[in-house]
Amino acid sequence: MSHVAQHLIDSGRYAKCVEVSKRIRWDIDRDVIRGRSFDFGKKFLPDALSKVAQLPFLMADEKRLFSQVQGRTYANIFALVERFIGAKVLEISRGHWLGDQTALEALVRLTDEELKHQEMFRRLETMMASGMPLGYRFLPQPNDVATAVLTSSTWAVMALTCDIELFTQVHYRSSIEPEAQLDPLWKDVFLFHWREESQHAILDELEWQREDAKLTASERDVAVDDLIALVGAVDGVLQAQANADAGYFVAHWGETLSAARIQQVRDAFLKAYRWQYIVSGVSEPRFQSLLAALVTASQMRRIQKALVPLAYAMPKSPTFPLPMAA
Ligand SMILES: [Fe+2]
Ligand SMILES: [Fe+2]
Asked: What is the pLDDT of the chain when averaged over all its residues?
């Protein structure tokens, strides 16, 4: 078994990731922050991510605050998911300890980069906190979420990780849309994060497939249920945070709002977060074809069924549901 798994390792793709990772490596202060602070007169998240069009009654100041609150949650969510991604990748790197040393190096570099990203997002959170009204709260605890996620099967965690590392690429593309008019520092955060995440997405794909090759059909069936449960858990986190962020946003809005308007704001936050942290990755053709190659048609239908409610009422999102496995 182990010599078969070893034989399947595509050393060239790991080597390419190591090469690119070394070449594009950046530093938080020297390359990203560069002594700058945020411009609170600008947006932090682009409209394509914040989905501000859902609230057509917002004025310019409110649109900006809507984007900035989501920017702050963006930094916190990434620092949170990178906690379990780093731990999981360190764990699966064990499979390469005495094997392909290039594959091991690629995973060690990924882990090191995720530690750096966590530090960067914590720094950004502190910088945003200094310029925003008091009262913002980020509810989920990174270690609580990581502890729960890491009880799931490796196959499911790698599928979720692949989704996450692919959607950082979608987010970068949204941030460079011509009408974005974002704070320049936030624009750089998207750019630099994407540069390192591009290699991570390739490594997730390789490791997810490597894990898949170890599973029996019935183990994979359990892993599919794990993935559905994980997506549900992520959605639980997003619901709680959308609620908190809607409360914060409404509290700092200049006027008193009707209950119906408050509900609309809450729904808008949740739809935006579901798009940002679940749907924008799983609807990528690359994710869909990876998944379709690993699961049966009936497993794919189970996954689709779990995802469709999250994408509901997002008419501008790419095609849903996912294509059926052959
Ligand atoms: Fe990252
Ligand atoms: Fe990553």
From this structure: 92
Indicate which ligand has the atom closest to the C-alpha of 88: 2
Ligand nearest to the CA of 192: 1
Distance separating alpha carbons of residues 89 and 69, to the nearest angstrom: 30
Residue 1's pLDDT is 42
CB 100 within 8 A of CB 5: no
Q: Dump pLDDT digits (tens) for 217-260.
A: 999 999 999 999 999 999 999 999 999 999 999 999 877 889 99
What's the mean pLDDT in 175-193? 90
**77: CA distance to ligand 1 center in Å?**
11
Cα(262) to ligand 1 centroid in Å equals: 33
Rounded distance between C-alpha atoms, residue 149 and residue 161, angstroms:
11
Say which ligand is closest to the CA of 77: 1
Using alpha carbons only, give the angle 147, 197, 49 rounded to the nearest 5 degrees: 85
CB 247 within 8 A of CB 283: no
For tokens 């892993």, the residue is 223
pTM flag (> 0.85): yes
Nearest Cα neighbor of 112 from 234, 28, 41, 235 is 28
Q: Which of 43, 67, 44 is nearest to 55 (CA)?
A: 67
Span from the CA of 17 to the centroid of ligand 1 (angstroms): 15
- Find out whether the peptide bond into 321 is cis, omega within 30 degrees of 0: yes
Q: Which alpha helices (H) appear in 150-258, and where do they start and end? A: 154-175, 184-214, 217-251
Sign for the pseudo-dihedral over CA of 163, 169, 171, 173: negative
Distance in Å, CA 96 to ligand 1 centroid: 22
Quick one: CA dihedral 217, 222, 227, 232, positive or negative?
positive
**pLDDT(294) > 60:** yes
Q: How confident is the model at residue 322 (pLDDT cuts 50, 70, 90)?
A: very low
Q: Is the pLDDT of residue 320 over 80?
A: no
How many angstroms is it from 62 CA to the middle of ligand 2?
Answer: 32
